[in-house]
Amino acid sequence: MSEEKTLRKVIITAAITGAGPTPTMSPYLPVTPQQIVEDAVKAYEAGAAIAHVHARNPENGEPSADLNLFREIGTEIKRRTEDMIICITTGGAGNKDERIAVVPEFKPELATLNCGALSGTMEHMYPKIKDKLKYDWEHEHIARDYFIFENTFEMMKKFSLTDRENNTKPEIEIWDSGQISNVAWLLEHEYLDRPLHLQYVMGALSGMPAAPETLSFIHELTRKNLGDFTWSVAAVGKDQLRMAAVTLVMGGHVRVGMEDSLFCGYGRLARSSAEQVERVVKMAEQLSIEPATPSEAREIIGLKGVDQVNF
Length: 311
Fold this sequence. Notes:
Distance between the termini: 49 Å
CATH architecture: Alpha-Beta Barrel
Helix content: 25-40%
Number of domains: 1
Order of helices and strands: EEHEEEHEHHEEHHEHEHEHEHEHEH
Strand order of the largest sheet: 2-3-6-7-10-11-12-13
């Protein structure tokens, strides 16, 4: 039997630090711009084509909307990797105007577009770690039970149009099944352009469960309502790698990283996002799937190119 000439490609995204985990939860969580850049570069070398980035206050690790921090992170990742795709969050720290400010400022190739609100809390963790917390801000961040991740239709419309104006591809974040209807509404009213690229975010407390049957359902629902699209899966917490394996089998792309899980396998803290990327690469190899290079990922998703960003 002749060797297969063309292997399937999987786009691996490394979500480096996020806005959920806190420094007390892991000594390995990247906090400073230098640490975030270093983790992204290691993930790139391990096989990630995309770095999904948030910024944090380098003094205490608190999530930040500071554009200067984002510029330092983006510029250094670009300099050190030359071609890694940088997906900048519009769902992190700050109010709605601060969240979208990264798109006109940096004109990234890819930016998140969250298509629905949800509530969340980590208060169940607070009694276990409250005496260990390093920084004052962590107390409220973990103990709060009133947090709403705000993504109104006003915001979705504004963020979509801002992406279009800056030739930035929206990575459409889907946290629960009803949000597919929001995407269909945005398409119908011409706030979104095809081809679509979706990220299913699974396992958040008030979002869809991180389970194979859920992914099968949401994928079929999306097909019926939106037609063709490319897609990736990010699973929050302990099911990150398990859902990565399911996603590979189903033909999707994969996001891992310390934003989504601080562990690399059950019970062991990840030393870097690159460790999680390495696990996905090994899984893929067993299925005759190759990690996509950044240039291949650009072609698959439809991105403008690293030479057209403003950092």
